[in-house]
Amino acid sequence: MGFFQNLLGITPDDSVNKVDAAVAPYNYQQYAQPFDYFGLSSISRADAMKVPSVARARNIMCSTIGSLPLEVRRESNNSKVPTPPFIRQPDPRMTGQSVYTFLAEDLLFTGQGYLRILELGTDGRPLSAEWISVSRVTRTLDAEGHNVRYYSVDGTVVPQNGLGSLIPFTGYDEGLLVRAGITIQTALALEKAVKRFADEPTPNVVLKSNLPMPAERVTALLNSWKEARQTRGTAFVNDTIDFQSIGFSPEQLTLNQARQYMASEIARACNLPEYYVGGSAGGSMTYSNVTAERRSLIDLSLRPLMTCITQRMSDNDITPRGSIVKYNLEEFYSPSAQERADIYTKLIPLGVMTVEEAREREDLINE
Fold this sequence. Notes:
single chain, Cytidine Deaminase, domain 2, three-stranded antiparallel beta sheet, disordered N terminus
């Protein structure tokens, strides 16, 4: 075999057997894209955030994920290892919470997210990176439309690896703006309808003049009518003007019930309990069940987004092989003071925990 390779001038590719030793990051751009909806959102992010229930869902989900601390553990025994600064704060110019909040938002809304490498270490792994909005990124796919040939940011092609290249994050579906775009558009239309009734608090009316009236006087009459209705509900018209009410009142249109229904639909689209966004379903968080509610929030709503981030940050081009990135949920799951006291009264007599360890957990150790 070696004879024919020498004869044909073929050099064996030893890189296949030296993947673990390679320090240069692999080609980020050769990245599979499972969704064909990129850039086809039926509603923009700016319009979606005008809907209170969407903004509420986004802030609960993405801001919570951004506030959770990331740590690195050994994959073999789950023991902690020092967390690199890049994991805690990818961009030195922004807090880590801001970076991960916006990254989670992109994954939630569009099914894609991106960091752009600003600095590399001697091992070829990033030391710093900036968050890049999905709206700034375009992709050029291969002939089959399955894999990315290269990315562009603001119309400029970025390198395939190294400084200036992108670290792509792939979500678990096509994104909320596509999947629930029509639902959000309907909710936005309801918000606009509410604003119209706030601007014109009375039902639509027709003022009919029994005498000819020039256009200027018609305009002046309508303006004065609108101004008067904003200060008093009673109107006076003389015998030359007929008043006729048309359309429906807000009560007849059941706008409040419609908004409640749309809030419930948006909560379902976000995998959130309806009461988180003010939906019509019952249920609420109390002091006694807050821990269970937080676990439910993580397991049913946030974990898919969190996994998209941690698994990508655990890849070998970012984290050394044998280590994985995980969220530390200990503080988020922290039980109430009464529940912690019950735990200590059971563990201390069993010898599982000492009084000093319990005091340390409660920050009662005097320096």
